[in-house]
Write the structure tokens for this entry.
Amino acid sequence: MKKLNSIRAVFYAMLAVTLILFTGCGSGEQTADPGIADGTYVASFTTDNAMFHVNDANQDKGILTVEDGKMTIHVSLQSKKIVNLYPGTAEDAQKEGAELLEPTTDTITYSDGYTDEVYGFDVPVPALDEEFDVALLGTKGKWYDHKVVVSDPVEGDDISAVIGESKEADASTAAALGLSDGEHTAEVTLDGGTGRASVESPAVIRINGDECIAVITWSSPHYDYMIVDGQRYEPVNTEGNSVFEIPVPYFDKAVDVIADTIAMSEPHEIEYTLTFDSASVK
């Protein structure tokens, strides 16, 4: 009996050691498998708010670095109005000992050659294709909660090359659609802002060689300029609702635009998107 009890004791001791090894107890910090090989990628960084997003020149793209299973994405923002980020909630960001993300100063070059200095941040990424918390601190000292998603990594470190490939794959240019020179119309959808503004649809589309211009008529006379791809455009009329002639880089994919309104107590730039429907072109 004593021998049997001794054998049982040895068996249970071995079983306990095996369970410890398999559960990782006492093995130190575990690094989750991110599901992507170590390296450098261009990835999408999308947020839940139009006021917090990647600089328009980079079209929601940042540089994702994967090293030893840990992921960090560097994103250049719109300006220097966001002074800190925190990988978590606004409440936790304000607790004693919270480690805030400090900005870098990034130089952005727009398609027209204009350059600007903005803040950038290295943001830890817990997982791809999953929403996670990132809080931001503005220049007025107030913290805000936001959700972000990092997705669609493409191997490399050239954001502009990935943007160019994406445009060719996802959008149709006037040339690709075979539109003839002259005047056409196309249905256009406006998104963004408060939702109260609208534009006339269909809009007039003018084709002249490689040039594709849309005539955008707003539902208000209070827009004094628009910005498309870093280029500023002035209204082409002096009476009635504001009218602009802007380039159409592609159809069937949202075109980021900014429109400045003077309807408020002071001028205010509002971010919108315009989507031109190729199937509706006449």
About this structure: Confidence is low (pLDDT under 50) at residues 15-31. DSSP finds four helices and 17 strands in the chain. The radius of gyration is 26 Å. The CA atoms of residues 107 and 117 lie 5 Å apart.
